[in-house]
Amino acid sequence: MLSADARSGFLEGLGGAAAMQYAVASRLLMDVPACLKEHDEVVVRRYLLLYTFPLLEMCGLFRSADYADQLFWALLQTQVGVHLRYLDDLIDGDVSPESVATRFQATHRLLRDVRHALNERGLAWSARQDDIYGQLFEFEAENRAGFNHDFDSMWRRVSPLCVVADTYLLNSTDESLLLAYREYLAWSLLQADCDDGLKDFGKLVRTPVTRVIRTVTSRTHLDWNAGAGAIAEVKEFLDHRREVLLAKILPCPLWSIIVRHLDQAFSHEEVST
Question: For a tag on the chain, would you pick the N or C end, based on fewer CB atoms within 10 A?
């Protein structure tokens, strides 16, 4: 999560870039966690800030005068994000045995609440949504089978975050920004993989970064210098992708500020996604 100082700088940046976005974002930062107070506030704010705000901006929702509508979509996307966080913890075995059942329950309730809220608006969760959502499991199966994924397919690892924009808000969003959102997801995932690269290698966790490390080591024993060098090469690639991404999201000042602050946070190891 962004540190307190980074969050403060982020909000100041929003104020300078777009007063309307600043006002709505500030309000959502209070109201969405209040609606999800049974969940870890750090996790809720992380997904609201990093993955919901860009979606709201690219879909034009920050320009809306209807705060109830803004809150509805912000809450929905953040619930999907927290659901994904819990699901990822379960898949990776990062939940203590005594907490597995309660985590499964919380994960199920979040997705149930999302579908219920959509149904109340007359919006169905159908095969189209399931196809996008299910990319997460297909990606995970491929990854565990040893398949190497390229940058453009990395979004599938967090595909539930794409359901809202790619279906319900599709007509409100420019196609180029939809693609940019997927690139943003891939970029942030690989940044986190780099920060955890040496630790993940030691734990035998399979990620694109640990695969790169294995190609420059003995595959069983970590050469720290070679491993660090491999991570540095991936970071250099991500620096280039950041500039490409920023060029694509020029119409979205809020999102651009998020990217810059997230990049700075990763550089100082202040963030975890």
Answer: N
